[in-house]
Amino acid sequence: MKRGGKGDRTRESILRVAVDVASVEGLEGLSIGTLAGRLKMSKSGLFAHFGSKTDLQLAAVEAARAVFVDQAVRPALVAPRGLPRLWALSEAWLSYVERKVFRGG
To answer: CA of 74: how far to CAs of 4, 65, 99, in Å?
Structure first.
């Protein structure tokens, strides 16, 4: 399947907001209706990208994980294995937390 179209960009935009909302309100506070209101989209338009509240929540968790890997784990992988890498990972994680990547921390 070809990726990178308008639908994929819309889904990514939705997920950026979804992760931010979930970081403050928790996954239970993340619903298609709530998110549609925040994004000024119709529920059916948002539903077309995820299909269910559970699918939306799972996609938000995966998006948050990907951000953490990109901003905390991946940079630490350049350090030599062993204690230097563990130290680099710890520093990257602390930096990630201090930067408050998501509104809710």
So the answer is: 23, 12, 17
